[in-house]
Structures are given as structure tokens and as C-alpha cells.
Amino acid sequence: MDKLLKCKGKLINVDGHNIHVYILGDIANPKIVLMSGSGTVAPVYDFKILYEKLSKNFRVIVMEKFGYGYSDIFDSPADIDTLISTQKKALEIIGENGPYILMPHSMSGVEALRWAQLYPNDVVAIIGNDMCTPLTYSVWTNEKVEKKIKLMRFATKYHLKKCYVL
Q: By three-state DSSP, how is residue 53 classified?
């Protein structure tokens, strides 16, 4: 069972909690940071096909935010500036300094845009992977949000019925 739970990358201690970072590719290549959106439970597995292909020409860094994948789950501020600061600290701790090409998926699109605002010298490009923008939030009504929540609850119930405990 322990072999099933062994993380693929590095657990980096940031402010007393572990964040999981997986890196693949030559250090001399340009760096792409894959940023997960909401609902991406385990980015290191969800993005595997993508980062394996990209790693031939890029140094790919998969960030698993707190609460995702192998990263710690704990009560912490979840505002956008704190999320970005945590990711930046983790990268600095392991010596992965910019410039970066950010590749946000879904809801992390807003994080990537904010990262570029806060640290313009660190970001050379943003490549959206089905990325949301601030406009996304302006057109979502309460009704649309409730509908998405119901869909996620349904999907979770269906998924749990199909899971087996080892």
C-alpha cells in the first residue's frame, strides 16, 4: 500500500506545510509551470500525458496547491495573492527561479494573470489550458454556480459508488 501512496516529486516545506512539486525535463530548457484549476484532484497524474510530451523541449514544473494531490490539507488563507506567494516560495526553495511560462488550467487562469501583475519579471508568457479569465466570473450568475455545484455533487456520488477500498 505504501508504494501506491509514494509521491512522484518533492515535498517542499513552505511556512510549516508541505506542497508537492513535480519536475521533469532539462534544467537548461525554458520552464513551464503547470497550474491546476478547481476539481483537478491530482495534477501530477491529471497532466501526465501533457507534461511528458512537453518535457522533451521544456523543463516542466507541476505545482500541486495545498489541498491538491500530495500537498498538505490544512486551514489557510486561500486568497489569490497567498496562493501565488506560496507557489513562488516553493519554487525559490528548490532553486527554480524565473522566468516562467505559466500554463494555467481552468480557474487558475486568474492566478496566472495575477502572478504576471505581481511578478512581471518572472513571467514571459501565459499559455491557457481551457483557462478562465475575470470575464468568466462576471458572467456567472448564482443560478449557474448552483447548477455547477449540483453537477459536481452528482459526479462525486457516482464516482464514489465506483471506488473500491484496498
A: helix
